[in-house]
Amino acid sequence: MNTPDSFSKNKTMLNTPHKNSRGRIADTFYGIVQIPVDSMHLEAEWIMPPNATGVVVFAHGSGSSRHSRRNQFVASILHESGIGTVLLDLLTRQEERRDAADGQLRFDIEMLTNRLITAVRWVEDHPAAHGQPIGLFGASTGAAAAIAAASILGERISAVVSRGGRPDLAYEHLRHVTAPTLLIVGERDDAVVRLNKEASQHLRCLKKLSIIPGATHLFEEPGALEKVASLAAAWFKKHLVPETQTAIRREVVEV
User: Fold this and answer.
1) Distance of CA 153 to CAs 112, 134, 148, 178, Å?
2) How many domains does the structure of the chain reveal?
3) Is residue 255 part of a domain?
4) Which domain does 230 fall in, by range?
5) Any idea what DSSP says for residue 164?
6) Which candidate, 5, 66, 7, places its Cα nearest to that of 35?
7) Residue 244, class by beta-carbon neighbours within 10 Å (0-12 exposed, 13-18 middle, 19+ buried)?
8) Residue 96 lies in a domain
9) Could you report the average pLDDT of every consecutive run of 10 residues in the chain (255 residues)?
Protein backbone atom coordinates (compact mmCIF):
# COMPACT_ATOMS: atom_id res chain seq x y z
CA MET A 1 0.00 0.00 0.00
CA ASN A 2 1.40 3.39 -0.98
CA THR A 3 1.62 6.10 1.65
CA PRO A 4 1.83 9.89 1.34
CA ASP A 5 5.50 9.59 2.31
CA SER A 6 6.21 7.27 -0.61
CA PHE A 7 4.78 9.88 -2.98
CA SER A 8 6.53 12.84 -1.35
CA LYS A 9 9.94 11.28 -1.91
CA ASN A 10 9.43 11.72 -5.65
CA LYS A 11 10.43 14.81 -7.52
CA THR A 12 7.51 17.24 -7.42
CA MET A 13 5.11 17.06 -10.37
CA LEU A 14 4.74 20.67 -11.48
CA ASN A 15 1.91 22.28 -13.40
CA THR A 16 4.31 23.85 -15.87
CA PRO A 17 4.76 24.27 -19.63
CA HIS A 18 6.39 21.20 -21.15
CA LYS A 19 7.68 20.80 -24.69
CA ASN A 20 6.95 17.33 -26.07
CA SER A 21 8.91 15.39 -28.71
CA ARG A 22 6.94 17.17 -31.46
CA GLY A 23 8.09 20.55 -30.16
CA ARG A 24 4.66 21.59 -28.99
CA ILE A 25 4.19 23.32 -25.65
CA ALA A 26 1.21 22.67 -23.42
CA ASP A 27 0.39 23.26 -19.76
CA THR A 28 0.88 19.82 -18.21
CA PHE A 29 1.75 17.96 -15.07
CA TYR A 30 5.27 16.72 -15.68
CA GLY A 31 7.79 14.93 -13.52
CA ILE A 32 10.37 12.17 -13.19
CA VAL A 33 9.06 9.84 -10.49
CA GLN A 34 10.69 7.05 -8.52
CA ILE A 35 8.43 4.02 -8.23
CA PRO A 36 9.28 1.63 -5.37
CA VAL A 37 9.56 -1.98 -6.52
CA ASP A 38 10.81 -4.54 -4.02
CA SER A 39 14.02 -3.09 -2.56
CA MET A 40 14.71 -0.69 -5.43
CA HIS A 41 13.20 2.25 -7.30
CA LEU A 42 12.36 2.40 -11.00
CA GLU A 43 12.38 5.72 -12.82
CA ALA A 44 9.47 6.89 -14.93
CA GLU A 45 8.53 10.02 -16.84
CA TRP A 46 4.96 11.02 -16.01
CA ILE A 47 3.12 13.56 -18.17
CA MET A 48 -0.54 14.50 -17.67
CA PRO A 49 -2.06 16.94 -20.18
CA PRO A 50 -4.84 19.28 -19.03
CA ASN A 51 -8.18 17.51 -18.50
CA ALA A 52 -6.65 14.11 -19.18
CA THR A 53 -9.16 11.30 -19.68
CA GLY A 54 -6.86 8.40 -18.77
CA VAL A 55 -3.29 7.27 -18.11
CA VAL A 56 -1.23 4.87 -20.25
CA VAL A 57 1.75 3.08 -18.68
CA PHE A 58 4.45 2.18 -21.22
CA ALA A 59 6.42 -1.07 -20.98
CA HIS A 60 9.50 -0.72 -23.16
CA GLY A 61 10.96 -3.54 -25.19
CA SER A 62 14.25 -5.23 -25.92
CA GLY A 63 17.22 -3.05 -25.05
CA SER A 64 15.04 0.06 -24.80
CA SER A 65 14.09 2.54 -22.06
CA ARG A 66 11.84 5.49 -21.33
CA HIS A 67 14.11 7.53 -23.60
CA SER A 68 13.05 5.51 -26.66
CA ARG A 69 12.50 7.94 -29.52
CA ARG A 70 9.64 5.84 -30.89
CA ASN A 71 7.75 5.55 -27.62
CA GLN A 72 8.36 9.22 -26.84
CA PHE A 73 6.74 10.07 -30.16
CA VAL A 74 3.74 7.81 -29.51
CA ALA A 75 3.39 9.38 -26.05
CA SER A 76 3.37 12.88 -27.56
CA ILE A 77 0.42 11.93 -29.79
CA LEU A 78 -1.43 10.54 -26.78
CA HIS A 79 -0.87 13.84 -24.96
CA GLU A 80 -2.43 15.70 -27.87
CA SER A 81 -5.40 13.35 -27.56
CA GLY A 82 -5.81 14.25 -23.88
CA ILE A 83 -4.24 11.08 -22.48
CA GLY A 84 -1.55 10.99 -19.80
CA THR A 85 1.50 8.75 -20.05
CA VAL A 86 3.93 7.07 -17.68
CA LEU A 87 7.07 6.01 -19.55
CA LEU A 88 8.54 3.42 -17.23
CA ASP A 89 12.01 1.89 -17.06
CA LEU A 90 11.41 -1.74 -16.07
CA LEU A 91 15.15 -2.21 -15.47
CA THR A 92 17.50 -0.22 -13.26
CA ARG A 93 20.52 1.40 -14.87
CA GLN A 94 22.76 -1.37 -13.56
CA GLU A 95 20.40 -4.00 -14.98
CA GLU A 96 20.31 -2.17 -18.31
CA ARG A 97 24.10 -2.42 -18.55
CA ARG A 98 23.94 -6.11 -17.72
CA ASP A 99 21.18 -6.71 -20.23
CA ALA A 100 23.10 -4.87 -22.94
CA ALA A 101 25.87 -7.42 -22.46
CA ASP A 102 23.89 -10.67 -22.32
CA GLY A 103 20.31 -9.81 -23.40
CA GLN A 104 18.74 -12.03 -20.76
CA LEU A 105 16.70 -9.69 -18.56
CA ARG A 106 14.62 -8.41 -21.47
CA PHE A 107 13.24 -11.94 -21.85
CA ASP A 108 12.48 -12.44 -18.15
CA ILE A 109 8.79 -11.84 -18.74
CA GLU A 110 7.74 -12.90 -15.25
CA MET A 111 10.03 -10.34 -13.63
CA LEU A 112 9.01 -7.58 -16.06
CA THR A 113 5.34 -8.39 -15.51
CA ASN A 114 5.63 -8.26 -11.73
CA ARG A 115 7.39 -4.90 -11.91
CA LEU A 116 4.80 -3.53 -14.31
CA ILE A 117 1.96 -4.64 -12.04
CA THR A 118 3.61 -2.96 -9.05
CA ALA A 119 4.04 0.24 -11.07
CA VAL A 120 0.41 0.22 -12.22
CA ARG A 121 -0.80 -0.15 -8.63
CA TRP A 122 1.45 2.71 -7.57
CA VAL A 123 0.09 4.92 -10.34
CA GLU A 124 -3.48 4.00 -9.38
CA ASP A 125 -2.86 5.18 -5.82
CA HIS A 126 -1.10 8.41 -6.81
CA PRO A 127 -3.18 11.60 -6.41
CA ALA A 128 -2.19 12.73 -9.93
CA ALA A 129 -4.08 9.79 -11.44
CA HIS A 130 -7.42 11.04 -10.06
CA GLY A 131 -8.88 7.53 -10.28
CA GLN A 132 -8.72 7.65 -14.06
CA PRO A 133 -8.84 4.54 -16.28
CA ILE A 134 -5.46 2.98 -17.01
CA GLY A 135 -4.14 1.51 -20.24
CA LEU A 136 -0.94 -0.34 -21.11
CA PHE A 137 1.31 0.17 -24.14
CA GLY A 138 3.97 -2.46 -24.76
CA ALA A 139 6.70 -2.71 -27.38
CA SER A 140 8.61 -5.86 -28.34
CA THR A 141 9.13 -7.99 -25.20
CA GLY A 142 7.49 -5.23 -23.17
CA ALA A 143 4.24 -6.12 -24.94
CA ALA A 144 4.39 -9.59 -23.39
CA ALA A 145 4.68 -8.01 -19.94
CA ALA A 146 1.77 -5.67 -20.75
CA ILE A 147 -0.47 -8.56 -21.82
CA ALA A 148 0.47 -10.67 -18.81
CA ALA A 149 -0.13 -7.74 -16.47
CA ALA A 150 -3.50 -7.04 -18.09
CA SER A 151 -4.56 -10.66 -17.59
CA ILE A 152 -3.63 -10.54 -13.90
CA LEU A 153 -5.05 -7.08 -13.16
CA GLY A 154 -8.28 -7.81 -15.03
CA GLU A 155 -10.84 -4.98 -15.03
CA ARG A 156 -8.29 -2.57 -13.56
CA ILE A 157 -6.81 -2.27 -17.07
CA SER A 158 -9.08 -0.56 -19.60
CA ALA A 159 -7.09 -1.08 -22.82
CA VAL A 160 -3.86 -2.57 -24.18
CA VAL A 161 -1.82 -1.69 -27.28
CA SER A 162 1.13 -3.74 -28.53
CA ARG A 163 3.65 -2.25 -31.00
CA GLY A 164 5.78 -4.82 -32.81
CA GLY A 165 5.18 -6.98 -29.77
CA ARG A 166 5.86 -10.54 -28.73
CA PRO A 167 2.50 -11.62 -27.27
CA ASP A 168 3.58 -15.23 -27.80
CA LEU A 169 5.90 -14.80 -24.80
CA ALA A 170 2.79 -14.38 -22.65
CA TYR A 171 0.95 -17.28 -24.24
CA GLU A 172 -0.57 -18.66 -21.03
CA HIS A 173 -2.07 -15.23 -20.25
CA LEU A 174 -3.69 -14.47 -23.61
CA ARG A 175 -7.07 -16.09 -22.98
CA HIS A 176 -7.40 -14.34 -19.61
CA VAL A 177 -7.06 -10.77 -20.92
CA THR A 178 -10.33 -8.82 -20.58
CA ALA A 179 -9.16 -5.39 -21.74
CA PRO A 180 -9.67 -4.43 -25.42
CA THR A 181 -6.36 -5.25 -27.09
CA LEU A 182 -4.83 -3.80 -30.26
CA LEU A 183 -1.88 -5.59 -31.86
CA ILE A 184 0.11 -3.41 -34.30
CA VAL A 185 2.78 -4.97 -36.50
CA GLY A 186 4.73 -4.03 -39.62
CA GLU A 187 3.83 -5.83 -42.84
CA ARG A 188 7.47 -6.68 -43.58
CA ASP A 189 8.16 -7.98 -40.05
CA ASP A 190 7.27 -11.48 -41.19
CA ALA A 191 8.04 -13.52 -38.07
CA VAL A 192 6.32 -11.05 -35.75
CA VAL A 193 3.27 -10.84 -38.03
CA ARG A 194 2.92 -14.62 -37.82
CA LEU A 195 3.34 -14.63 -34.03
CA ASN A 196 0.75 -11.89 -33.59
CA LYS A 197 -1.76 -13.62 -35.86
CA GLU A 198 -1.40 -16.79 -33.80
CA ALA A 199 -1.65 -14.90 -30.51
CA SER A 200 -4.75 -13.06 -31.68
CA GLN A 201 -6.56 -16.37 -32.09
CA HIS A 202 -6.11 -17.04 -28.36
CA LEU A 203 -7.38 -13.67 -27.18
CA ARG A 204 -11.00 -13.83 -25.99
CA CYS A 205 -11.40 -10.11 -25.40
CA LEU A 206 -12.31 -7.34 -27.81
CA LYS A 207 -9.31 -7.39 -30.15
CA LYS A 208 -7.88 -6.09 -33.39
CA LEU A 209 -4.77 -6.84 -35.42
CA SER A 210 -3.50 -3.88 -37.47
CA ILE A 211 -0.76 -4.46 -40.03
CA ILE A 212 1.06 -1.33 -41.23
CA PRO A 213 1.75 -1.63 -45.00
CA GLY A 214 5.43 -1.62 -45.95
CA ALA A 215 6.63 -1.27 -42.36
CA THR A 216 9.43 -3.28 -40.75
CA HIS A 217 9.91 -4.11 -37.06
CA LEU A 218 11.00 -0.63 -35.91
CA PHE A 219 8.50 1.29 -38.09
CA GLU A 220 11.29 3.46 -39.46
CA GLU A 221 9.67 3.92 -42.87
CA PRO A 222 8.16 7.35 -43.68
CA GLY A 223 4.76 7.69 -42.04
CA ALA A 224 4.84 4.27 -40.36
CA LEU A 225 5.37 5.45 -36.79
CA GLU A 226 2.79 8.20 -37.30
CA LYS A 227 0.28 5.51 -38.26
CA VAL A 228 1.16 3.49 -35.14
CA ALA A 229 0.66 6.53 -32.94
CA SER A 230 -2.64 7.42 -34.60
CA LEU A 231 -4.00 3.90 -34.17
CA ALA A 232 -2.88 3.75 -30.54
CA ALA A 233 -4.39 7.13 -29.71
CA ALA A 234 -7.72 6.21 -31.30
CA TRP A 235 -7.81 2.87 -29.44
CA PHE A 236 -7.07 4.40 -26.06
CA LYS A 237 -9.43 7.30 -26.67
CA LYS A 238 -12.23 4.84 -27.35
CA HIS A 239 -11.56 2.37 -24.56
CA LEU A 240 -10.16 4.41 -21.66
CA VAL A 241 -13.58 4.82 -20.09
CA PRO A 242 -14.91 4.37 -16.56
CA GLU A 243 -15.32 0.77 -15.44
CA THR A 244 -19.10 1.10 -15.50
CA GLN A 245 -18.93 1.53 -19.28
CA THR A 246 -16.79 -1.51 -20.10
CA ALA A 247 -19.52 -4.05 -20.87
CA ILE A 248 -18.35 -3.94 -24.49
CA ARG A 249 -15.35 -6.01 -23.47
CA ARG A 250 -17.45 -9.12 -23.53
CA GLU A 251 -17.73 -8.76 -27.29
CA VAL A 252 -15.07 -10.56 -29.36
CA VAL A 253 -13.96 -9.12 -32.68
CA GLU A 254 -12.50 -11.58 -35.16
CA VAL A 255 -9.57 -10.43 -37.33
Assistant:
1) 14, 11, 9, 9
2) 1
3) no
4) 4-250
5) S
6) 7
7) exposed
8) yes
9) 47 48 57 90 92 93 70 94 94 78 79 95 90 94 96 97 96 98 98 98 98 96 97 98 55 46
